[in-house]
């Protein structure tokens, strides 16, 4: 029983879903145009590197009400107009890992964007307040991406 409890504490998922009135292709174009992030993205103002599987990228996040941080995850999925994912680790695997995913699903009026991160590791339980601010950052980014993509599609 104790093992189940500690495993529960060692994982946390944040997921924010946003309906966007623009085709997945338009949303994908905005999401992967990382050179423009500073212009519109309040949560992730900088992302550099190649969005190809196996590439290391550099990501700067600025959650609302929290100190910003830069990390260097590895891209684990890049399926055009559908899915972008990376895995970041703090120091060593199992300490504090984050698998960040953007998923686009076509709908009758555009697409659904799900931005999600699954955090695992022994430090997850100590990061509750930071993770709550991260969720607020996901909401800000999704809304900004929605606005930008809907303008581009108009």
Automatic annotation (TrEMBL):
CDD domains on file: SRPBCC_4
Organism: Actinophytocola glycyrrhizae
Name used for this protein in its record: SRPBCC family protein
TM ranges: none
Listed InterPro entries: Polyketide_cyclase/dehydratase, START-like_dom_sf
SUPFAM superfamilies assigned: Bet v1-like
PANTHER family registered for this protein in UniProt: CHROMOSOME 9, WHOLE GENOME SHOTGUN SEQUENCE (PTHR36166), SRPBCC DOMAIN-CONTAINING PROTEIN (PTHR36166:SF1)
Domain of life: Bacteria
